[in-house]
Amino acid sequence: MPIPFGSPPPPGTTRPTRSRPRRLPLLAGALALSLPLGLAAASHSGAQPHLAPTGLAAQQYEDRFLELYDQIMDPANGYFSEEGIPYHSVETLIVEAPDHGHETTSEAYSYLIWLQAAYGKVTGDWDPFNEAWQVMEDYVIPGSADQPTTGFYNPQAPATYAPEYGDPSSYPAPMDNGVSVGVDPLAGELAATYGTNDIYGMHWLQDVDNVYGFGNAPGAPCAGGPDTPGPSFINTFQRGPEESVWETVPHPSCDDFSHGGANGYLDLFMDDNGYAEQWRYTNAPDADARAVQAAFWANKWATEQGNEGEIAATLDKAAKMGDYLRYGHYDKYFKQPGCTSPSCAPGTGKNSANYLLSWYYAWGGSTDTSGGWSWRIGSSHNHFGYQNPMAAHALSADPDLVPASPTAQGDWETSLERQVEFYRWLQSAEGGIAGGATSSWGGAYGNPPAGTATFHGMYYQEAPVYVDPPSNQWFGMQAWSMQRLAELYLETGDATAGEVLDKWVPWVLSETTVGADGDFAVPATLAWSGQPDDWNPADPGDNAGLSVTVTDHNQDVGVAGSLANALAFYAAATGHTEAQAAAAGLLDALWEHRDDVGIATPESRGDYSRFDQEVYVPPGWTGTMPNGDVIDSDATFASIRGFYEDDPDWPKVQAYLDGGPEPVFEYHRFWAQADVALGLATYADLFGEDD
After folding, report:
1. pLDDT at 371
2. What is the largest CA-CA distance in the chain?
3. Residue closest to 136 by CA, chosen among 252, 251, 291, 253
4. Which entry of 68, 91, 171, 621 is 20 to 30 Å from 118 by CA?
């Protein structure tokens, strides 16, 4: 029988460290058969895969990149606001982590920076890359006016403890001054390095068109309202792992009690003796890390062109962002890993760091600058999908990106090793990477069940952070995170990275199909059982008790683009022809799904039945949204988002809610278009002719 299409490299294959990506010969084209890739061909160590004689040259993939890039950047296609901010999607009626298409995320900003880095590589024009970073800095990194009381922050008492609960109905959570919290070891160093107490990191969510009407505009976050034009800082998720997007209550990042109830929105989430007007922001570390990752490649490519001076100022900003990104290394309340009671000893120095990229870090304070206060927290929960060892490599090894703080380079060196270990610890018997780990069981420093697997004092979580739906079931996390690891592998030859990828790639190829005329399928949903072995870096286990099953497949455009990117880097690092063929095949198939706006495939959205989802509001609590929508115990997702009834796509949803068929959409998400474009640019770069 044939060797599986995704077999690892033959024994003895070397993977030398390289100063720039190696270019390999271009394969002839896409796979001709709509078969699982693990069945379609023999190993690269022997017979060639079955290839369609399309004869595509690397230049054609570069041309496709530029064609798609032009579609994305064309103002008529609707990917950007008038400020140049990328929307989450062209379409407005879409509910995912953002609950409206013309919101945006720090993720989208980071994809714009990465896209413009690739454009600079292809064209030699670096102005768009610099401009993308500037747009990010102007609109989604809170400025001094947006965080006016950071000077009151006390790193000896970073924040008041409040437990997390499993269900939204358990909120608001009580603030508890009786629980000792650890010391923040970064604040003093960062303030001394940059001469400010402000945080230089993106807030994760923004209402670009001010659809909700909070009007939290950058530069004057509490001064707006429904008539304020332009982007507004907002937030949604606040109430534990069971709170899906369908159960959230959107609220302003600066709460001056203009909307909501008597205390704004604060007493929906926290139970305190009194409430003060305040601002607060939440950073998604994976997005900031992606921006740094993009800056690394921009630096490499611009240097190859002799254009490094054109982006020097932006690289300084990327290094600065990486300095503050270290807050993502820390437990929520700066407790030490292994803490199993709120009364455990608080952390001192850096012993509360786990050196992974956690789910968030956050900071906030009062709006009253005459007698203010301020707080900062990390996050206790770590998801494999947020890790970015390529960013850690950049921040520890690239002289132009090593941050200015004295201990930052060493922290990122530790983080690089820890992140790669994390992947290895979480790799299932089949090859997929499992969920993650926590330093606070149940979000309240509880005692985990006996026998729970451990990693550097933290405890295994099958679905870190959220469970509706489980955070480890979406295959996209696999493609995103392994793409970064594959970059690291090509760039450094890291042996553990190679070990992980040598097992992951065959698993993915066996679950991926590529056929003719745009036919393709990639994994969509994963199911998990068991857990990893306890981590022993000197003798890693084989994780025979940890297993993954692919339960369904789909044609997710962005995931397919990211997967092609990952496979291309792996192929360039190893000479694995099947991975290269699969990358080309996916990109060719995606190209068959072009329309006037970009690349899209039909999606049936049965989850839109949850527009009628009840949203928990405590009995007796009443308030209003800026447009007058009532917030009370009868609230639903749709009832506090009345603007959706005016959306041009609403009739399709209403018909479904009335008993009709599931609505079908063809969405043009910004990140997905960027992922396809980046896959095209990567393939052209890695498999073109040497300069």
Report:
1. 86
2. 77
3. 291
4. 91
Quickly count helices (H) and strands (E) in the chain: 16, 22
Distance CA 74, CA 319 (A): 31
Instruction: Give the chain's end-to-end CA distance (angstroms, integer).
Output: 41
Residue carrying the six token digits 């022809």: 577
**What are the pLDDT digits (tens) for 498-542?**
999 999 999 999 999 999 999 999 999 999 999 999 999 999 999
The rounded Cα 122 to chain-centroid distance in angstroms is 25
CB 258 within 8 Å of CB 225: yes
Measured distance CA(121)–CA(680) in Å, rounded: 13
Fold (CATH) for 606-664: Endo-1,4-beta-glucanase f; domain 3 (4.10.870)
Instruction: Count Cα atoms within 13 angstroms, Cβ side, for 625.
Output: 22
Residue length of the chain: 691
Task: Say if residue 40's pLDDT is above 60.
Answer: no
Beta bridge partners of 261: 264
CB neighbour list of residue 657: distance below 8 Å, 6 or more residues apart? 608, 609, 611, 612
* Choice among 517, 646, 658, 691 that is catalytic: 517
Annotated active-site residue 176? The verdict is no
Nearest alpha carbon to residue 509 among 15, 22, 42, 58: 42
Beta bridge partners of 279: 254, 365
Q: How many Å apart are CA 501 and CA 504, to the nearest integer?
A: 5
User: Between β-strands 458-461 and 436-438, what pairing exists: parallel, antiparallel or unpaired?
Assistant: antiparallel
Residues with Cβ < 8 Å from 133, sequence gap 6 or more?
113, 291, 314, 317, 318
Query: Between vectors from CA 267 to CA 265 and to CA 269, what angle results, nearest 5°?
Result: 85
* Residue 687 tokens, joined: 């498999």
Give the position of tokens 């409040």.
162
What are the CA-CA distances from residue 465 to residues 110, 437, 441, 443, 623 (Å)?
Answer: 22, 10, 11, 9, 28
The whole-angstrom separation of Cα 630 and Cα 641 is: 10
Classified as helix, coil or strand, 423 is: helix
Spell out the domain ranges in the chain.
Answer: 606-664
Ranking 32-36, 179-183, 428-432 by mean pLDDT, the lowest is 32-36
CA–CA dist 547, 507 (Å, integer): 12
Phi–psi pair at 148, nearest 5 degrees: -75, -15
Distance CA 217, CA 83 (A): 12
User: Distance between CA 222 and CA 246 in Å, rounded?
Assistant: 26
Express each pLDDT in 640-656 by its tens digit. 999 999 999 999 999 99
Peptide bond just before 464 cis, omega within 30 deg: no
Q: What token pair was written down for 595?
A: 């329309």
The rounded distance, in Å, linking the Cα atoms of 591 and 580 is: 17
